[in-house]
Design brief:
279 residues, alpha/beta, 6-stranded parallel β-sheet, two-stranded antiparallel ribbon, 8 strands, globular, disordered C terminus
Length: 279
């Protein structure tokens, strides 16, 4: 779609709070900055998903932020070169790392520490993946990411091929590591029952998804779970990969009311400030 057609499409869209550019590397387009600038004048928030490599070039980062881009989500798979090459089929880890560093530095320069990171002018978050290829170095990857004052980190289990107790244990350690470094960590793709004592870190299952056919699976045992009303169920891609146990009234967590309240709020409105210690 050329520049004129894309602008026409954006102009015809109903007014909304935000718009998201995803699918492919949009900033590879020569007219990307022009399009983002156009969208920035129509939508309050312009969000962009990237693998980060194109932002290895400082001028691209500065131009992107100055054009009206407000929110960037970067997929950062791993710090392991071999695993990164296998997953992405490219030899671009050094560019992804440089892009990450540039984006993190730009956000920190644009936003003052006193600003609530979920309501700041510029927001940069990272999405990493729990996979058999990334699991051996996942803690190392999380340590690298969270040392750069990133406000939000997503550890993604969607389409994961490793749902063992060991994998979930590593995910717990990664959440603790992120919190220690001041980053709000979210586990995506796992039902709340899989993360006992870490329930407020389950950013999924985005409850509205349970009404979209084919996205999630609700086992019959879930009817007995005290968190049933605020859990989105289990993604069908992982439903048969382990045994799921409901949280019953006999085994309910002490902070159940807090968890119920937290998960009744849509993810974008959840607080970004971590408690000093989990309740």
């Amino acid at each position: 779609m050329d520049t004129k057609a894309l602008k026409s499409l954006l102009g015809a869209m109903p007014e909304s709070e935000s718009i998201e550019f995803a699918g492919g590397e949009f900033f590879a387009r020569k007219d990307a900055l022009e399009i983002v600038d156009f969208a920035g004048n129509r939508f309050r928030r312009v969000k962009y998903n990237t693998n980060g490599a194109i932002f290895a070039y400082r001028n691209v980062v500065e131009s992107a932020f100055n054009s009206g881009l407000k929110i960037i989500y970067m997929k950062f798979f791993t710090t392991d070169p071999s695993a990164h090459e296998t997953i992405t089929r490219t030899n671009t880890l050094k560019y992804a790392i440089k892009g990450f560093e540039n984006l993190a530095n730009m956000q920190n320069a644009k936003n003052t520490p006193s600003v609530d990171s979920l309501r700041c002018d510029y927001f940069f978050a990272v999405d990493t993946f729990a996979h058999s290829l990334t699991l051996p170095t996942l803690e190392e990857t999380i340590a690298f990411i969270t040392m750069s004052d990133i406000p939000r980190l997503i550890i993604n289990f969607n389409y994961s091929d490793c749902l063992s107790d060991e994998a979930i244990s590593i995910a717990r350690k990664c959440v603790d590591l992120a919190v220690e470094n001041g980053t709000w960590a979210i586990i995506k793709g796992l039902p709340i029952c899989a993360m006992r004592d870490f329930e407020e870190h389950c950013g999924d299952a985005y409850r509205l998804e349970r009404y979209i056919p084919g996205n999630v699976f609700i086992p019959s045992v879930c009817d007995r779970c005290v968190l049933f009303s605020v859990c989105g169920g289990i993604p069908e891609t992982i439903a048969d990969k382990r045994r799921w146990s409901p949280i019953t009234s006999e085994s309910k967590p002490k902070n159940l009311d807090h968890i119920m309240f937290f998960h009744s709020i849509i993810p974008e409105e959840r607080p970004s400030i971590m408690p000093v210690a989990r309740l």
